[in-house]
Design brief:
Number of domains: 3
Shape: elongated
Strand content: 15-25%
Order of helices and strands: HHHHEEHEHHEHEEEHEHEEEH
Largest sheet: 7 strands, mixed
Helix content: 40-55%
Low-confidence stretches: 1-6
Number of helices: 11
Structural class: alpha/beta
Mean pLDDT: 88
CATH architecture of the largest domain: 3-Layer(aba) Sandwich
Length: about 300
C-alpha cells in the first residue's frame, strides 16, 4: 500500500477534481463544473483511490458521500493546493518585483491599532501589492507563516517562535492596569502596581500567552505580591471581557484603551519596570521575497514615525 501511495502524482488538477466531487457529492454535477465528461472524472478519482490505497467515497444511486478517510483528505488537499498556489505566487512576485499578492496574518487586537495605517501607507507607497489579511491567534499565525500559508505575521506575545522564522520587533507598548469602570482607582491619573495587591485578577493562560503571563507574574512579584487568581483567559479579548464584567482586574497593553470597551478603564502604572512593557513583532520565513521585506520596512517606519 505504501509503495502505491508513494507513486501517485498529486497534481493540482487531480486535487481540484477530488475537491469538486467532495463538494458536489455527485460525479455528474462535478464533471459539469470542471468542464469535462463524467467517465474521465470517475477514472481520475479511482486512480487517486488506488494510489492512496483507501476508499475516499461511498458510491450510491443518488450520488456519493465522503468516507472518514475522504473527509480527512479534503483538509489535506485544500492545504496542498494553498501551498502550491503560495509557491507560484512567490515565484511570480520575485520575477516581477513588487507586483502580486502578500498574505498577512495578525492577532485580533492589532487590527484596530496598526492594520489601517499599514494598508493606507501600502496603497500610497506600494500600489502594485494586493494585501490579503487573515486574523488568527499568535500560535496559529506563526505556524501559518512557518508553513508558507502566510507571508508575514504580526504578533503579540511571541515567546515560543519556531527557529525557522525571522523576527523583527516593530513596536513596544506599556502595560497598564485594566480596572472595572466602577473601581475606586479607575479615575486615578496613575497608580502603583502594589495598589492592586488585594484585588482578584484575571490572568493570561500561560499556554496561550506565555510571555504576557510571565511578565504579569514577575511585575507583581517585583511589587511585593503574588496576584490572586479569579479567572484565566487565553486571549486579550477574554481578559478585558472579564475586567469589564466587574469581577476582577488585569494587566493589559495600554493601547487597548483605544478600543470601545464599555465598563473598563485603563490606568497607567508608575515605575520603569522592564516587566511593564510588551513587544509587538513581525515574523517571516528566511527566504521572504522583496515585496514582503518592503512591506515589513513600511510598517516599521509607520509605527516609529
Amino acid at each position: 500500500m505504501s509503495d502505491m501511495a508513494s507513486d501517485i502524482n498529486l497534481t493540482k488538477r487531480l486535487l481540484e477534481q477530488f475537491l469538486v466531487v467532495a463538494e458536489e457529492k455527485h460525479f455528474g454535477r462535478a464533471a459539469e463544473r470542471l468542464s469535462m465528461s463524467q467517465p474521465p472524472l470517475s477514472q481520475s478519482i479511482q486512480r487517486l483511490e488506488r494510489g492512496l490505497g483507501v476508499r475516499l467515497f461511498d458510491r450510491g444511486p443518488g450520488g456519493v458521500s465522503l468516507t472518514p478517510a475522504g473527509e480527512a483528505f479534503t483538509v489535506d488537499a485544500r492545504r496542498m493546493l494553498d501551498v502550491q498556489s503560495a509557491a507560484v505566487e512567490r515565484v511570480r512576485r520575485v520575477a516581477s518585483g513588487l507586483e502580486g499578492d502578500v498574505r498577512v496574518g495578525y492577532v485580533t487586537v492589532l487590527s484596530h491599532q496598526y492594520m489601517p495605517g499599514l494598508l493606507r501607507a501600502a496603497a500610497e507607497e506600494l500600489p502594485g501589492l494586493r494585501i490579503h489579511l487573515h486574523q488568527a491567534s499568535t500560535a496559529a499565525t506563526a505556524e501559518m507563516v512557518r508553513s508558507g500559508a502566510l507571508d508575514l505575521g504580526f504578533l503579540r506575545d511571541p515567546s515560543s517562535l519556531s527557529p525557522e522564522l525571522v523576527r523583527r520587533d516593530f513596536a513596544v507598548e506599556r502595560i497598564a492596569a485594566a480596572l472595572p469602570l466602577g473601581h475606586p482607582l479607575a479615575r486615578a491619573e496613575e497608580i502603583g502596581l502594589a495598589d492592586l495587591r488585594d484585588e482578584d485578577f484575571v490572568l493570561p493562560d500561560p499556554a496561550a500567552l506565555p510571555a504576557l503571563a510571565r511578565q504579569g507574574q514577575l511585575a507583581c512579584q517585583e511589587a511585593g505580591f503574588t496576584p490572586r487568581q479569579r479567572a484565566v483567559a487565553d486571549d486579550l479579548t477574554g481578559l478585558f471581557s472579564y475586567v469589564a464584567s466587574g469581577l476582577c482586574v488585569s494587566l493589559l497593553p495600554e493601547r487597548l484603551r483605544d478600543f470601545p470597551i464599555p465598563g473598563l478603564a485603563f490606568v497607567p502604572l508608575r515605575g520603569a519596570s522592564p516587566y511593564l512593557k510588551t513587544t509587538l513583532v513581525a515574523v517571516h520565513r528566511p527566504e521572504a521575497d522583496a515585496a514582503v521585506l518592503r512591506l515589513l520596512d513600511l510598517i516599521t517606519r509607520h509605527t516609529s514615525a
